[in-house]
Protein: Medium/long-chain acyl-CoA thioesterase YigI
Organism: Lysobacter antibioticus
Amino acid sequence: MSDPTKRADEVDSDVAARVRDSFARQGLMAHLGAELAELSSGRVVIRLPYRDELTQQDGFFHAGASSAIADSAGGYAGLTVFPAGSSVLTVEYKINLVAPARGEHLEAVGSVIRSGRTLTVCQLEVFAVAGSERTLVAVGQQTLFCLPAKS
Amino acid sequence: MSDPTKRADEVDSDVAARVRDSFARQGLMAHLGAELAELSSGRVVIRLPYRDELTQQDGFFHAGASSAIADSAGGYAGLTVFPAGSSVLTVEYKINLVAPARGEHLEAVGSVIRSGRTLTVCQLEVFAVAGSERTLVAVGQQTLFCLPAKS
Amino acid sequence: MSDPTKRADEVDSDVAARVRDSFARQGLMAHLGAELAELSSGRVVIRLPYRDELTQQDGFFHAGASSAIADSAGGYAGLTVFPAGSSVLTVEYKINLVAPARGEHLEAVGSVIRSGRTLTVCQLEVFAVAGSERTLVAVGQQTLFCLPAKS
Amino acid sequence: MSDPTKRADEVDSDVAARVRDSFARQGLMAHLGAELAELSSGRVVIRLPYRDELTQQDGFFHAGASSAIADSAGGYAGLTVFPAGSSVLTVEYKINLVAPARGEHLEAVGSVIRSGRTLTVCQLEVFAVAGSERTLVAVGQQTLFCLPAKS
């Protein structure tokens, strides 16, 4: 039964727990220093503070860092709308790197565009935050596969 | 002048040096533990040994790790065919994750499909190597921008 | 000089004329029966009425028809924000077909996400309209190249 | 039982019939003037002769025409490796337009890269043929969905 006290976009506490557990098991997210920043139904935000260990050759965030948190944000956004017990796999994604990714941290936003029984499509956006400025640095589109719970 | 002793697909030593220098400046490649494994004209291979710090929630290599080395392999493949002094930017890429990425190491192969004055298109392939088995785990396509040398 | 009587999102009459002229020269748009339906700064809508000549094997609109109008809508959306005299080339696009495209007509919406000097990124959406229902059937992302006016 | 007289890449006659029947039902392919040119296991070629009705604003083949035949070539390449009675849906594709598409005809080649139970990934290539010259004008990657036979 869904929780009658939660807001429309709020996720059930078991969904939140499922996402947090899975995120905590991703060695790469810890290794990069990424944090799960926001979690609502169909939308997840991951934050990644700047470190020299995340750069490309000019000292900006590497596209691989932006992409890694974008992919995870989209994947977990999908997981919030999947049936209980499901797992999520990324089928594919496409990402445009539209500006140099410089700033104190990155914020990747994954948002479900359309959710089907097997496949779900998400929008991916990555912003670089420098002081009070928030610049779109990457935008993408992702296809997810919902792996049903094993019975 | 091009070196008359090199093979057709061999890169000039200054091109090789340019790629190795740029790779060495990528904080993320070192942080992941990636190595530049092969370098020829229009083709670069990057190798990434397994570590728990590179995993997704099921213990396989994270798509973000596969993508990061695929993006770098393609970018450097492009750089080998660019005019001297140019830099490379990734405009966008698309990647399909076609099998679980498990094994002792990953190998990302970036190959130039078509090179233009401003834009270059590369094929990206990532293989997982486990003992004597080599499995295609990701395949993609990437658009690069050639930033000419500043005069 | 920009026209002081036009709305913020309105395009100058010469931009509108440039888009309409180019659209009229596209043999394929006429052959498919597509019409330029809306035109504002950074956003273009193309409408495509149903015909048996546009179908795939199950009688729905063919993905090729959806894609063709999506690509043109994005390209012209880009052209509305390019400097006078520029031309537009599609570098690449990616499109997800998220629902069967059935209805009386399709509507492709191209919207500029970020515009640079050389490259511009657009969002592509295609809706199928059946009576009062409007269903998202495709969503994509496109990279455009701005070819400057020949001097 | 598979036919012992056929070559490794030859398709069973029922598979060939299934592809030809489906192609013949695609109103758009006939409307564009496209022909099924080659058909082997995991690889399909579609040919599209030049007509003024297929052009973009500069008189070359419209990207929408290239994409439509590329999408169909990939889809049917997938269908040749699917279990009997299956149908094929395009999940998404990405295509780079790498050269102006001018010539007497286009040739779209769809090739299966990796085939899974539910999802299959194809490479898409489009060549423009002008006299004895054959130029790569588009290259892409496509994800297909195998819809099992209804029991």
In short: Chain C has one domain: 13-147. Residues 50 and 105 of chain C are 5 Å apart (CA to CA). The two ends of chain C are 20 Å apart (CA to CA). DSSP finds three helices and six strands in chain C.
